[in-house]
Amino acid sequence: MVFAMGCEGTIGEGGRTEPGTDPMDPRFEARVWRLSPPQLELEIERLFGPEAPAPNVPPGAAEYGLTNIAATGRIDTGNAGLFVEGIRAVGEWAATNGATAARCDSYGTDACIDQFMGWFPEAAFRGPVTDDEITELRMVFEQNRTDYDYDYGFASVVRAVLLSPRFLYRWELGEPGNDDAIVDLDPYEIANLMAFSITDRAPDDELLAAAAAGELDEPDVREAHARRLMDRSDAVWQRFFWEWLEMATLQSQGNEVGLPPSLVAQMEEEYQTFVSNVVVENRGTLRDLLTSDQTWAQPELAEYYGVSHPGSGLQPITMDASQRSGLLTQGAWLVAHGKDGRANVVRRGMAVFRDAMCRNVTPLDIDLEAALDELVGPDATVREIVVARGEAPTCGACHRLADPIGLAFEGFAGDGSWQTTYAADGNPVETNINFPGAGEIDGATDLSQILADDQAFRSCLVQRFAHFLMGGQVGSPEIVRWTGEADQAFLASGGNFEELLVDLVRDPAFIERRKP
Predict the structure, then answer these.
(1) Is position 140 within any domain?
(2) Average pLDDT in the 79-91 region?
(3) Residue 145 domain-assigned?
(4) By the 8 A CB rule, do 364 and 394 touch?
(5) 151: which residues sit within 8 A by CB, 6+ positions away?
(6) Is residue 315 very low, low, confident or very high in pLDDT (cuts 50, 70, 90)?
(7) What is the pLDDT of residues 445-503, one digit of tens each?
(8) What is the pTM of this model?
């Protein structure tokens, strides 16, 4: 059963803002939030190397498809056992690997555990460690070595540190003892916020040095570090676009439309490489992301696209610009929002209208397929269905807005392949639509050009990226100062992603918190 939906807004106008957002004070309350599963995995790798086992822990609940949300990143009775068992496995691995894990030359001696205590707690806690903390950890080791053996004592120190809130959580509480209503984050809190938000990793030596020197409260210093950290931000940008554009269904939909798993994997590889090259390596713009006819592919994927490949392996290729240009015409997005049959108009139209333009969509409790049977006959073309659905009193409230966007993508079948006629009935594919403010356009490449300049699309991206970066809802650029100024900086820079990041990081709200 497919349900119709009710919509608010029109194409070409700004998105709505969630109730309760105060445009005069976009600052978050003081908070702590758990490392996300990717961050936890990278932290274990940083401390012990890539051979260490990665704890299999669940993410928190998502908001608007975005994960790593502060309010939902918690350890509770429902998932605590997974953390305990995962960290236990890391401790056992560390004891088995002895000298390598401890970074000492004489594993099994007091000198080795002293050497281990000299680097491990501070590295894991991502900031200074007190003498009391070292004393307590040494007591843990001595007690367990006495009761069991050296290996068990060593593993127990690993467990104690990695199960500590100082390791598992990021802190944004401000200076201890500060009772002001608004507090600044302390230098190490800022360093951790910047590092994890931009790179998914702990602060590097340069950030920690800036924290120790008390420099990170200066906007110019934060900007310099943000620009430097952009070189290591690939994974964050890849995850942001993946989640904002709801692409996690790529594998399941690839299976539904009958694509070989190897080709689906290559589509994801293409997506990751494309985003990294456009956003990070070339410091590109929204227009580059949406309209570039260059991408990176394996020979099998190039053949799927119908273009030549220079040889073997992952290589840059040039698309047929009359068919494909930019992220929304690549296999990963098309297949993630594809389906067998004639539902692609709805799926792809809604993916842009709802997810990428921040529209409110409320499902209506009606059977859309049954409603269509009353509106059109069984031999109706896709365009006739779109027109009928848009004119219907109930269905039209939403579909008259979203369906034209989906129709522009009808040049691609459910499996993302190019089509000029429909395989089911041989009817010609029609992709010309009227986009408010732009007039008549034809197909996904034209639409991508329009979206690169569309205010609603751009502002939604800013709103969702701020949400993603900060782990919580900042609010619409239309009414919230912080995102509004970031949106204007993004626009003034020609849609440059680095400038968007820098403007968000420079703002006082980035490092200020409200006391609850």
Answers:
(1) yes
(2) 94
(3) yes
(4) yes
(5) 95, 96, 98
(6) very high
(7) 999 999 999 999 999 999 999 999 999 999 999 889 999 999 999 999 999 999 999 99
(8) 0.91
Q: 242 and 513 in contact (C-beta within 8 Å)?
A: no
Of 15-24, 176-185, 350-359, the least confident? 15-24
- Residue 8 CA to chain centroid, in angstroms? 25
Is the predicted pLDDT of residue 370 greater than 80, yes or no?
Answer: no
Counting the structural domains of the chain, the total is 1
Token code pair at residue 80: 């605590």
In the chain, the amino acid numbered 308 is: S
Structure tokens that stand for 67 in this block: 């994960």
Q: Residue 264: what are its φ and ψ, rounded to 5°?
A: -60, -40
Determine the distance from the C-alpha atom of residue 92 to the mean position of all C-alpha atoms in its chain, rounded to a whole number: 32
What sections of 250-330 are H helices per DSSP?
Answer: 250-256, 261-275, 286-291, 299-305
The whole-number pLDDT of residue 372 equals 60
Six-digit token pair at 319? 């698309």
User: For residue 40, is it within any domain?
Assistant: yes
- Are 9 and 400 in contact by the 8 Å Cβ rule? The answer is no
Tokens matching residue 74 = 């918690």
Radius of gyration for the alpha carbons in the chain, expressed in angstroms and rounded: 26
CA angle, 303 then 307 then 309, to 5°: 75
Instruction: Please tell me the distance from the alpha carbon of residue 305 to that of residue 417, in angstroms, as a whole number.
Output: 7
Closest by Cα among 503, 464, 512 to 17: 464
Question: Which residues, at least 6 apart from 446, have a Cβ–Cβ distance to it below 8 Å?
Answer: 408
Give how far the C-alpha of residue 326 lies from the chain's centroid of Cα atoms, to the nearest Å.
Answer: 18
pLDDT, position 11: 46
Q: What is the identity of the amino acid at 299?
A: P
Query: For residue 105, how far is the Cα from the chain centroid?
Result: 41
CB within 8 Å of 97: residues ≥ 6 apart? 48, 51
pLDDT at 20: 40
With 0-12 / 13-18 / 19 or more C-beta atoms within 10 angstroms meaning exposed / middle / buried, residue 20 is: exposed
DSSP letter string over 48-103? H-TTSPPP--PPPPPBTTB---GGG----TTTHHHHHHHHHHHHHHHHHTHHHHHT
Nearest to 249 by CA among 323, 334, 185: 334
Give the residue with greater pLDDT, 288 vs 10: 288
What is the domain extent for residue 108? Answer: 34-172
Q: Which residues contact 272 (CB under 8 A, 6 or more apart)?
A: 234, 238
Cβ contacts of residue 197 below 8 Å, gap of 6+? Answer: 236, 469, 470
Q: Answer yes or no: is pLDDT of 17 > 60.
A: no
Reported confidence tier of residue 260, pLDDT bands at 50, 70, 90:
very high
Structure tokens at 252: 């399941």
Q: Are 292 and 305 in contact, with CB atoms under 8 Å apart?
A: no
Whether 484 contacts 475, CB under 8 Å = no
Strand segments, DSSP code E, in 65-195 are 169-172, 182-184
